[in-house]
Amino acid sequence: MTVSVDMGSDERGGSVPIDLEELLATRLLVQGNSGSGKSHLLRRLLERSAGQVQQVVIDPEGDFVTLSGAYGHVVIEAGDYSEREIARFATRLREHRASVVLSLEGLEVEGQMRCAAAFLSAMFDAPREHWYPALVVVDEAQLFAPAAAGEVTEEVRRASLSAMTNLMCRGRKRGLAGVIATQRLAKLAKNVAAEASNFLMGRTFLDIDMARAADLLGMDRRQAETIRDLQRGTFLALGPAVSRRPITVRIGAVETSARSGSPKLTPLPTATPPEDMKDLLFAPEPVVDQPGFAFDSRPMAVPPDRVIAQLGRSVPEPLTATERDPQEVEAIVAEVMRAIVADAEAALRPPSVLFQDFQVRCRMADLARPPLDLAGFTRRLSCARAGIFDLADEAWTTALDVAGGLPDDMLGAFLLVARAAREGAPCPSDAQIAETYGTSSLGRVRRLIGYIEQRELFVCRTDLTGKRSITIPRLGWTTQAAEAA
Ligand SMILES: Nc1ncnc2c1ncn2[C@@H]1O[C@H](COP(=O)(O)OP(=O)(O)OP(=O)(O)O)[C@@H](O)[C@H]1O
Ligand SMILES: [Mg+2]
User: Fold this and answer.
1) Which one of 127, 184, 387, 481 has the minimum C-beta count within 10 Å?
2) Helix %, strand %, coil % for the chain, to 5?
3) Residue nearest to ligand 1 atom 14, measured at CA
4) Higher model confidence: residue 126 or residue 264?
């Protein structure tokens, strides 16, 4: 099964998918100047692949912590823990396959590098039985794999660089797939950049970065000039997981927002006259009774044992909603299915893609675990597309049982007819059935009906005026007669 992640649209408005399995094998490098939309792109990738693959984000700015609400990532605020604790979390998250955001916000560069090194190395060194596939997203990767020595100590630089090199060069066998983003390609260590086979290049101004980008893309400098004119949010994409030829992709929308957005100009305050403004600026500090209170407004750190417990809890495996009353869960699922089929674009998307949408919407409705797996969702989608939402209704559970022996892709057509039959409505036309069956060939529809008839689930009857009615004998329901063509 290929799982693809819809990243956005190409120049002609077609969707641009990334093949997730191929990405796991071939890694990704994203580059673009500040504000070109790299973090937005990473967020799109993370949101759209959440639930399909474990995700670990190394997040220097604390931008991605907002994934925890909608997608259930465990957030680790690195500044609250020791290096050893951070390494322990890394080992545990591999064992439990937890999706995690390691926020390095507020640490000095050296601390960020130390922490990333400890974290990545422990993930890399996890025991073989925990080598599950995971996307490891590193934003601002030039911080952790700098091309040149900086102001940090040589020991820290080496540790961080070697962890990044391991991730990109030797991670694949261990299930780790590096997805790295950088503002400045020229500042990123060459061997780290060179290990990615997929590229998404955003707007780039400096010649030196452009030259590096051209090298990686295998383009001549003149061709690569196009990168200079790219709009924010538009990237030139190339690589086995995206496209064998360079294509431009406009990255689509995201569900969650970055904690830090772009600054927007707002009108300056005009109401305060200059002399009052001076008073405001020179006003003395308010006196605080409790010493220390005003200075440390950070929330208390989560104790390490609690983090470990969270990592264990986010195991993605049993997808059952035991915590909630089944009727309530059923009502939420029905609502979510209505919302999904109401979205016009959804008609064209395959169930595996809509399943992600389903998972997100369930979480938004406060169902911590989606109540259906992909197979269950696919059946439910067939029902919804046939206009059947309320599966608490026993007649529909019986109808689904009756249809149990049919291949999944025929279920929608069966249910469309079943609904008309139950309601005594006119028999759906071949064209209507073709739509649910995802075909434009009326010949295929006739073969489909023939197949269901052979299974004795349908009995078709054509009256003297040429109108067709269909009976479902095992349910005792019959449609009204109507034109088939
Ligand atoms: N495809 C897009 N659609 C809509 N908005 C976008 C898109 N790409 C980026 N933006 C917006 O543009 C702004 C800058 O994007 P983003 O933060 O992703 O840039 P960046 O390349 O990560 O910059 P930096 O290197 O400074 O972190 C953000 O407010 C983001 O929401
Ligand atoms: Mg960014």
Assistant:
1) 127
2) 50, 15, 35
3) 35
4) 126
